[in-house]
Amino acid sequence: MLSRPKPGESEVDLLRFQSQFLSAGAAPAVRLVRKGSKRDGDADPDRPRLQGPRDVVMLDDLPDLPPVLVPAPPKRARPSPGHPLPEDEDPEERLSRHDQHVTAVLAKIIGKPATSGKRSIFAQEIAARRFSEARGPPAGEVIHNLDPPEGTCEAPAPMDQGCQLPGSSQSFQGPHLVTGKGLRDQEAEQEAQTIHEENVARLQALTPEEILQEQQRLLAQLDPSLVAFLRSHSRKQEQTGGKATEEQSPGGPSIRVIKEEPIMSPSANGSREEDKLQPGAPAPALPVTPHKEWLHMDTVEMEKLHWTQDLPPLRRQQTQERMQARFSLQGELLAPDADLPTYLGLHHHGEEAERAGYSLQELFHLTRSQVSQQRALALHVLTQVISRAQAGEFGDRLVGSVLRLLLDAGFLFLLRFSLDDRVDGVIAAAVRALRALLVTPGDEELLDSTFSWYLGALVFPLMPSQEDKEDEDEDEDPPAEKSPKCPEEGSRPPPDLARHDVIKGLLATNLLPRLRYILEVIHPGPAVVLDILAVLIRLARHSTESATRVLECPRLIETIVREFLPTSWCPVEGGPTPSLHQVPCATAMKLLRVLASAGRNIAARLLSGFDLRSRLCRFIAETPQELALPHEEAETLSTEAIRLWAVTASYGQGSDLYRELYPVLMQALQTVPTELSAHHPRPLSMQRVASLLSLLTQLTLAASPTALGPTGDSAEASLSATPSLITWAQVSGLQPLVEPCLRQTLRLLPSPDLWSALGPVPTACLLFLGAYYQTWSQQLSLCPGEWLQDAERLLEELLLPLLSQSALGSLWDALRLCSPLCNPLSCAPGPEVLPSLVSLGHAGDCPPLSLAGSASPFPFLTALLSLFNTLARIHKGLCGQLAVVLTAPGLQNYLLQCVAPGAAPHLTPFSAWALRHEYHLQYLTLALAQRVAAYQPVPATSAALLHGLALALLSRLLPGSEYLAHELLLSCVFRLEFLPESASGGPEAADFSDQLSLENSRDPRSKRGVLLAQACQDLPSIRSCYLTHCSPTRAGLLASQALHRGELQQISTLLLPVPKEPLLPTDWPFLPLIHLYHRASDTPSGLSPTDTVGTAMRVLQWVLVLESWRPQALQAVPPAARLARLMCVFLVDSELFRETPIQRLVAALLAQLCQPRVLPNLNLDCPLPGLTSFPDLYANFLEHFEAVSFGDHLFGALVLLPLQRRFSVTLRLALFGEHVGALRALGLPLSQLPVSLECYTGPPEDSLTLLQLYFRALVTGALRSHWCPVLYAVAVAHVNSFIFSQDPKSSDEVKAARKSMLQKTWLLTDEGLRQHLIHYKLPNSNLPEGFELYSQLPSLRQQYLQKLTSGLLQNEVSET
């Protein structure tokens, strides 16, 4: 049995099988039967099979190359056996004659004469139209004339030319109605053409007059409906032909057929005008005439073709009404009257079609188009609009915020939907728009350029500071203690989250998995990859929670590390890169660095779970020149790798890499002087050098004994803390390499251009030296004499020569020009600031004279002061020499302007970032002054200035600076060295000032000078009181202390708390007193008398010191707020105000409030900080006075102070209406009234209700002169002024009340009260009654009184 071929057999095996089959002569398994054709009918089953030689494949004679393919001969139809083809007939003509297609069939229908009457006119019209279509070119087609040259005209053939009447341009191209239908196929076309030629010949033989006569005769004989039909048919053909000839092809010239209007009678013209109104007739205003032959033009709807008409003229805006903003395709705002050409593509058939540009609503509509190009275009335009709005290009030309309008309209979720698109172009446009919305271009540049500043790696999270009420308690917790996701937020829908926080709303839409899918599966282009990485960086900067979600997104970080941080790749030359996949990307390394900055645990997971150690070694071991990448990308990648290591080293992690890369770091340090000596240092190279020095600073701090292990109780620190593997011996050799770099940079200080080109390199050198000496001084096993001698050497050889340079003085002078405090407008918020989308609002390049500008002295001087503080702490003998820096004139002028009262910058994300760096310089200045003051006296002027700066800084410090606030409370604020007035006659001067302003003599023990002297002696107790009540929470204090002291193992995150407000309120001197008031309100049983009296006395002492010697420290607290805080002393306890020290201190403070320079600023009607309503507080105060005062004069003085005439009548109504019983206890003598009596009596009272209450209290005896002399005089004055006023503009009700009150006064039985009310003249506090009386009434008053009283007497006589 023969075997069959198997898979894998070669051609030789197949040939062998074939030869075996033929030699065996076996029957084949398959038989071929020739089947009969359908044309011949069914095949004969008995017909014998065709026999012939079998096909045998032979490979011997085959050529090596395949044969050349040539066109095959034309295939001809095979004739059937019963129908042979004639030899003289062309097969093509025969096929055309037997064509059964519908167009060919309809074209060959020949119409019968119209007189036959067997076919309708409509059917004849249809047949004629089909026939004309089959003969000539379709309507609208241009017939090109390519053969004849320009200026010549070749005569066409007779059949193409047609016939033309003599003297007319009207031509006849062929028969219109006579089609030859009904005749044979061969005769139909010829007969119709013969009839047509005869008709044309007869027309040519007639004159135009004869033609018109024949026309009139035919019109009279034919049916009018038939004539109208023929005319409409003729017009349609004319319009079709005219349009076809007018449309010229741009490829070359074409024949233009010009037709004139046919000769028609007046009646025909009238019917033509009527035909224009028919629905089928085209509108003459349309630039394009529609044809029924066009697709979907069977029924022409004119109302849908209006958009093809010419644009209406642009309407000029005559009023100031607001108009809808329209933008160009580049996002530019177009003026309402901009007249732009239509070829720019800015006009459309929407609303206001005459105006160019697209509105935001139209762009939104376009983003949901079914055409992907339109969706991408709309997203591109919106991206440009957002970018220009953030750059402030629109200015005040738009009403409202563009970003706010877009977010309210749902633009955020529109972008999220667009990311799910299937078209790559739409996805790219959506990612670009998302980056434009979330990422401010200058923010990252700003944060990167300041990474090497003093604590520059610490940043505020870019998250909103105003959260919902249910989230406020969680926001107060430190970031390390927050849960990854709050259950309340997880249950809220994304739109609600996005309304308060855009980032949280985006994360709730599963954005991260989609971005991972785009990177992992779609493999987008380089621009899209960079946009996605920028968006991820912005998400990581939001908060620790967001960074954790980015880290925990499945396969996201794995994809980024695998695709964009490979350890091996193909070399990339300069120029655009077609793909970033499998190519190292600096932005990806930066993303990992930002993630590591969010928390210690995240950094540890990155190092251990993604093999970052090998990648750090790969990109740091080689110089940027050796990396097979473009130079700029290689520099940035190396810089970001060093920064990532520096961030992990700030947690005490990654120290094992130091041993492996120690030779690399030493080699890099040795090449720094070469890079610094370049004529024009490159910015990227300087950033890399500064980052390297920052890394060495963190590694040096890791060698400190405090970094060997965790010592705090932080759970996160204890879990992820690892003992440092770096010893002092491994970092002690770094100083000899860094110090020459600093020397080389300081030589360039006199050259401003070269100095600014160095960037943060000098700052990083100084910070490294400070960390080096700090760590050296903590080595217990070393001899202190070594680092003391080395510190002296550094001061003599490097720092003292630096202090003597005039160039350093110019840096001190530039502080005022670059200070955000001195220039609040430099921190003004950007044009597009949203509370739900936080950004620094940094538009781009900073001005040179700004805190972050190229000429800013802040980074270098802050680092210099940090080094001075380190040297002064470890070597106290250097304090005298280092004190020279505090006397710099530029520094003194800067501090004076910072202390002066003025408008502080509004707290925004950018101002918080800038002010934090400025506060570092101010604190380091105060810390150095405090160390110097311990060994040598500070000049009085400088001491007062520094103390004022400490008080101002304490109320300005932001969250994250808790350690600085605590240190200020411990040192500068409550130290006698900074209160020179205590030792230079300050108390005596205060007493002398009081004697000049007060005529009465006081108790010697209650004089202000004695109280101030006692307060200076009690400063330690005062400090303890404020440390108890004003210190931050322990967790916040420990976290801030670890950051500022370099305790690496205690640092949990490099993200600072959200800067909602300063750490301490502006009225922090009253804070312990406010705490007492709240505790008393919450404790019905009362507080401990000892603690209450002590705390209240310390607070009042300190406030008196500030009021007397540092009034600018309380400038931000309004006088009304100070009065409200003094009232709290009486509301805390029923016995507290009776204590003699409290009485004396409150009296002294009340006298300060009632001084002529302060009293005009006392405004009780404006909102007060920390107080919901002053009338409510005053009502509570009156109730307490009525219950526990027992006629205390000091208590009564505070009750009377808000009753002045210029304050709200509500306060006076509260006393005379609801607490009239308190009048008997207000026995304060007129001589002890702290303000003038005229403040209560003028101007005259205009409240009728209060006047009636005054009169009732006087008449009923509730208000008497010996009970309440002050208010008795006030009430008499106002009632007298009211009853004798004769204002003609008064209402009838007031006139009637005035008349009634005067009559009742005349009838009073109390002669004394009657005499006072009628004969009152002027207020006079020196008299017992408090006012003067008329001995005789003026004539006008006497006449007015007699007029009313005479009528009253007449009424009494008539009644009797």
Specify Rg, calculated over alpha carbons. Answer: 50 Å
Report the portion of residues in β strands.
under 5%
Helix content: 40-55%
Number of helical elements: 61
What is the strand tally? 6
Q: Poorly predicted ranges (pLDDT <50, ≥5 residues)?
A: 37-53, 59-72, 100-118, 135-170, 241-284, 467-487, 710-720, 1356-1360
Describe the strand arrangement of the main beta sheet, using strand numbers.
1-2
Q: What distance lies between the first and last C-alpha atoms, to the nearest angstrom?
A: 162 Å
Subcellular location: Nucleus
Domain RPAP1 C-terminal: 324-389
Region (Disordered): 32-98, 233-288, 466-497
Domain RPAP1 N-terminal: 193-237
Show the helix and strand layout:
Blueprint: H1 11-24, H2 91-97, H3 102-107, H4 121-135, H5 158-161, E1 163-164, E2 171-172, H6 185-205, H7 208-221, H8 224-246, H9 266-275, E3 326-327, E4 333-334, H10 360-367, H11 372-390, H12 402-408, H13 411-419, H14 424-438, H15 441-449, H16 469-475, H17 487-491, H18 494-500, H19 502-507, H20 511-522, H21 526-540, H22 544-552, H23 556-564, H24 586-597, H25 600-609, H26 612-621, H27 631-649, H28 656-660, H29 662-676, H30 683-702, H31 715-720, H32 728-731, H33 735-746, H34 752-757, H35 761-777, H36 784-803, H37 806-813, H38 815-818, H39 858-874, H40 879-882, H41 889-899, H42 909-933, H43 940-954, H44 962-970, H45 986-997, H46 1008-1017, H47 1019-1030, H48 1034-1045, H49 1071-1082, H50 1089-1109, H51 1119-1132, H52 1140-1153, H53 1174-1188, H54 1193-1200, H55 1209-1218, H56 1238-1241, H57 1248-1260, H58 1269-1283, H59 1292-1306, H60 1311-1319, E5 1320-1323, E6 1331-1333, H61 1339-1359
Antiparallel strand pairs: 1-2, 3-4, 5-6
InterPro entries: ARM-type_fold, RPAP1/Rba50, RPAP1_C, RPAP1_N, TPR_RPAP1/MINIYO-like
Domain RPAP1 C-terminal: 324-389
Pfam family, one: RPAP1_N
